[in-house]
Write a structure and sequence with these properties.
single chain, 242 residues, 2 domains, 10 helices
């Protein structure tokens, strides 16, 4: 019988800036950077909390703030004005977005929407430029963010090209839970998506996805709750090599 560990997304827990700094220092982008730069980012960053339905930023915004996911669920919407694009890819703990304004200028082209109460950490463009004035290599470290997000995007495309529906679902669940890709978590992240949203992201009908999820749950590979899924990493990974 699988023993379910505490999900690694700090959902519903008290969050303060020191705790957020500890989480972000160990996840995603910042651990790949030198310690002095990492510390400077954390020293200048501020914690922001959002409720369900809030928008972190939208197309046309020119603030240039960098945003990092600490806990909760916020999705990246590529075409928020397109009615056909109703679901965005959830940000994973340690993932940062918002580099376009600093690197290229201009206004935002994507939207980040919050679907559950969430905590994000914010670094203003002015704060980053102050850091870069003291450390010219800061621009190199900033470039790691689109590299990581590009890697995640490529993995998402590769997952969607898996023909077998069961394998495609397993691969997608593992990616969304932080068990595959550039944003790995020590323990699987709770996937905070409805079955309808998940079906859209995996490109399956709700009926087909429902059958696969019921099979996975019966096999002990996942645990389903209303609006969320927890995965058993090893048991679900076994599907990909079956």
């Amino acid at each position: 019988m699988h023993i379910w560990p505490e999900p690694d997304n700090h959902r519903g827990k008290f969050m303060d800036l020191p705790t957020a700094r500890t989480i972000m220092a160990a996840r995603g982008w910042l651990p790949l950077t030198p310690e002095p730069f990492r510390q400077a980012v954390l020293d200048h960053a501020v914690l922001r909390s959002f409720g369900k339905g809030d928008t972190v930023f939208a197309p046309g915004d020119d603030s240039g703030t960098l945003w990092g996911m600490v806990a909760g669920c916020a999705s990246i919407m590529l075409n928020p004005q397109d009615s056909a694009q109703s679901v965005g890819h959830p940000m994973l703990p340690g993932q940062w977005v918002g580099t376009g304004h600093l690197l290229f200028g201009g206004k935002r082209r994507i939207e980040v929407q919050v679907s559950h109460d969430s905590h994000l950490i914010a670094l203003s463009s002015a704060a980053f430029r102050q850091i870069a004035a003291d450390d010219p290599l800061a621009w190199r470290w900033l470039g790691l963010i689109p590299a990581l997000n590009g890697s995640l995007a490529m993995m998402t495309v590769e997952d969607l090209m898996i023909r077998d529906s069961r394998h495609r679902t397993a691969a997608s669940l593992l990616r969304l839970a932080g068990c595959r890709g550039p944003y790995l978590s020590p323990e699987p992240v709770e996937i905070l998506l409805t079955q309808e949203a998940l079906a859209t992201l995996i490109n399956l009908s709700r009926t087909v996805l429902g059958e696969i999820l019921r099979d996975f749950e019966r096999e002990g590979r996942i645990e389903r709750h209303y609006g969320s899924i927890r995965v058993a990493r090893d048991l679900l990974q076994a599907v990909l090599v079956a």
